[in-house]
Amino acid sequence: MNYHLRRVAACYCSRNTSGEIANAWSSSERTIGFRGVSFENGLAGATSKFACNLRTRKPLRFATQSSYLTAVAHWCQWACLNKFLPFNPAVGIELPKEEKRLPSSYLSIVEVERLVNQTDVTTQLGIRDRAILEVLYSTAMRRSELLKLTHYDIDRTRRLLVIRQGKGHKDRIVPIGLRAIEWLEKYLRDVRPWLEAGNGSKRRRKQLPVATNRLILSNTGGAMRPEVLSALVRDYIEAAGINKPGSCHILRHTAATLMLENGADLRSLQTLLGHESLNTTQIYTHITLERLRQVHDAAHPAKPDVKPDAKPDAMADAKLDLKPDSKPDDKVDAKPDAKSKGPSKADKSKRPPKAGKPDEKGQ
Questions:
Q1: More confident site: 359 or 311
Q2: Distance between CA atoms of 287 and 268, rounded to whole angstroms?
Q3: Cα maximum dimension of the chain
Q4: What angle (nearest 5°) sits at the alpha carbon of residue 243, between those of residues 238 and 245?
Q5: Is residue 9 packed enough to be buried (19+ CB in 10 Å), middle (13-18) or exposed (0-12)?
Q6: 210-221 tens-digit pLDDT
Q7: Residues acting as catalytic residues
């Protein structure tokens, strides 16, 4: 199994993907042993066996079930191709249907400004943290993409950042706002050399940290780890009094949502976010409901007449302004039917006689 994972990582999977496969395999292996599903009898009916967590006994999400079953199916295919198994027992596995979930939450403009102003810019660490928040909010990049930035990835003249080997091993170029590039320049000029010298840590180290070309440094002067960055952003969100789940990724959702509300098209947003498919970008159209709210208020016939907390007398006096089409006393001018040949005989008898023509002889 370890050889298989090393082969996966070396051939066509990233280190993170191979790690996820290893974790999924260990979880699925325990589940298979607990549920009594054997490879000899086949795994066609194993979908229902991955329905709950072994420790908490709670139902697993469809995405988690799919990752477990994919790891098992991938290993079985590899074992069958290399003649370790006589047949592939995972051929009949049906993966659960993928869930389509909206982003959990995003921040408003007021909340974003309150968040970035929580940093203490009178200190070196506060300047670094302000630069981190500004870059995440301005570029909508992922956490891992920010931590991979180096000095060579900044185009100061055109205000561009080069993201190398992002998700899916793809490079892309994203613009950065003027405010964000100014805070980033201040961090690189005043704070990064100070951190690189090991002055950010309260505990004095005997030796300097290993030199790195990464842009964002930790308090100890080395490259910042992903979990440290998530905890840092989360602390600022809680300090700002924002009761919404999320950390670094909530700034990505916020930037995409607010740009879409301000008129950005989906194609440009797809390029900025680095989505391979436009369907992934379209999830943000379901949470930008301002236009839909305006159409609903203008077109829906239900208008407020009396407030729910009004007094009973006011509600009794409230009447709907309904106008009937016609009243019984109204006179309706009936038009003759176009198909009728003319007036009836009774109507003709009531008419006065026509005046005759003068006799030509009398003239």
A1: 311
A2: 18
A3: 146
A4: 90
A5: middle
A6: 678 899 999 988
A7: 142, 167, 249, 252, 275, 284
Backbone angles phi and psi of 223, in degrees to 5: -65, 135
8-state DSSP, 217: B
CB atoms within 10 A of CB 266: 14
Q: Structure pTM?
A: 0.66
85 CB neighbour count, 10 Å cutoff: 17
44 phi and psi angles, rounded to 5 deg: -65, -35
For the chain, strand residue ranges (E) read 154-155, 160-163, 172-175
Q: How many angstroms separate the Cα of 70 from the Cα of each of 23, 31, 37, 73?
A: 12, 14, 16, 5
As given in the structure block, the two tokens for residue 294 are: 């305006």
SS3 state of residue 117? coil
Percent of all residues in the chain with a pLDDT value above 90, rounded to a whole number: 36
Phi, psi (rounded to 5 degrees) for 72? -65, -45
Give 96's DSSP letter. Answer: P
**CA-wise closest residue to 171 among 183, 184, 162:** 162
DSSP 190: I
**Residue pair 94/105 in contact by the 8 Å Cβ criterion:** no
Instruction: Say how far apart CA 99 and CA 62 lie, in whole Å.
Output: 7
Token couple for 322: 């309904």
CA atoms of 146 and 176, how far apart (whole Å): 12
Q: Are 196 and 217 in contact (CB under 8 A)?
A: yes
Q: With DSSP H G I counted as helix, E B as strand and the rest as coil, what are the percentages for the chain, rounded to 5?
A: 50, 5, 50
- Two structure tokens written together for 281: 């970008």
